[in-house]
Amino acid sequence: MTNFQIRRLLPEDMSAYCDHMVGLDRQSRNDRFEGAMSDGAIINYATRPLKEGEYLYGAFDGDHLGGVGELQSSALAEGETHAEAALSVDGAHRKQGIGARLFERLRLAAAEHGIDVIDLIALPSNFAVRAIARKFKMLLVFESGVLAGQLRAAS
Questions:
Q1: Residues with Cβ < 8 Å from 44, sequence gap 6 or more?
Q2: What is the pTM for the complete model shown?
Q3: How does pLDDT run across 27-53, given as a tens digit for each residue?
Q4: Residue spans of alpha helices (H) in the chain
Q5: Which of 71, 89, 97 is nearest to 151 (CA)?
Q6: In this structure, are residues 114 and 108 in contact, taking their beta carbons and an 8 Å threshold?
Q7: Can you give the residue range of the structural domain that contains 84?
Q8: Which of 23, 59, 116, 142 could form a disulfide with 80, with the two C-beta atoms 3.0–4.6 Å apart?
Q9: How far apart (Å, rounded) are the C-alpha atoms in residues 86 and 119?
Q10: What are the phi and psi torsion angles at 98 (to 5°)?
């Protein structure tokens, strides 16, 4: 197993972030975006300016970005601040615990930024996210064709 370093993405990492996203295979794209995405759509997504309340963390093996965890704040719900989490890991680096390590870092980032609850949405066929949900004891429920779950940010 490769020893990946998890850290927040810096402005100089945005090219590697775009390359990572475009380099995802078809199944990984479906898992990450809950559906098919063209190279052009992914490039538009990966090169957009980050919004306030959006945090990106990467799993680096030297200069290679092998996985990304994204956290995007959303509106208050019932007096609590929520953020949606998303994960992507290169096919060559799956099943090495990188997604779980990225998710744990997102939990810490959520707490650091005053986010109370992390929302996670995935296709039922996304077995990697389902495994992460089990690891973090997150209940996923099926609604409107997707699995959805919530987890309190780390304290």
A1: none
A2: 0.90
A3: 888 888 888 888 999 898 888 888 888
A4: 14-22, 26-33, 39-46, 98-112, 127-135
A5: 71
A6: no
A7: 5-152
A8: 116
A9: 9
A10: -65, -45
